[in-house]
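Q: Red chlorophyll catabolite reductase, please. Structure only.
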Amino acid sequence: MGTMILPLCSHPHASLSSYSTLPLKQISIRKIRNSVRASSITPFEMEQPMRGRALMEFPHLLAPHKDLMVGLISALDKRLHRHLLPSSATVPPDAEYYQNQSGASQGSLCINRGVDSSPIDFILASWLHLSLPTGGAMNITNIQGYLKSSTDAPHFQFELVQCSPTYFIFFLDLIPRKDLVLNPDYLKTYYEDSQLEALRKQLGTQVVEAKPYFSSSLYFRNVVSPTGIVVSITCEDGGTAGRAEEIIRDNIEPIANEVLEIWMDSCVCKGGTTTAGENERDQLEKRDRMIKSRAIEMDLSSSMPIQFGQEVADRVLGIIRGVFRIMFSLILLIDPLVYVHINQQVFIQ
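A: Structure for Red chlorophyll catabolite reductase:
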């Protein structure tokens, strides 16, 4: 379930293949899963499931897509376990998994709030399987990490949308919370000194099918960082699901793992460039609130009742509104035009 704050957008990079890139450190799911010592988790914590079973099933995804999601969520759980409360404290069973009357459209929602001492506000993970009028379905997977105003560090955003077996949209970014022109130290810390730009270039050189994805909203194009990855990938010329699986497994997965590690290391554990004072906290909260509020104008909450009915939509949206503490529309990462085209039985490509 895309539940973040922006429509997909991108930056022109038609000549990415001409750029030199740094070697990409391949991080295996096994390495990430073993990165935290078992002794750091108490028996009590081990008895408290961080997430419901429905989220981790991912029943409609390609195998590499499922492996990617399970690996990312497992890394979050093991690395940040002490920071988070179980999802059951926020999301009731009838919102953890839901479907429409026919069962053709399904979804799962998991929200882990941060404990009082953590810089994490919440981490949201979700998937949506949306039946399309033309037949077939769209699969949307989303992970986002929101930080509190006690830190100025960026938020984390991952979204992989499979519109068809051979066409998907990929969005990965650390969402800046300060103006990068007015705060060059912030730009240097999170976007120049990290490997984010190298990873963005890496995908462009390795996946020839990747093309910039431009949102229809100029406002939201300015919210994404300069190193954000926002691309559409079409396996053309006889492309098959096999090629899509290869791209997810060999290209998207290692990059997503790397960016998540950067966020956990630099943003969660180090806690920002400074300790935010009262005035700065007000500014951070205002920026976050303005971005969320702007999303309301898209009125994308109409898509949820269409797919699942009003009762289910009210139930799930109510949980999300409570966490975001603002009137908030579901599926906010996907460009509004995508959902218009879903209702018109046409894919955007």
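A: Brief note, in case it's useful. DSSP finds 13 helices and eight strands in the chain.
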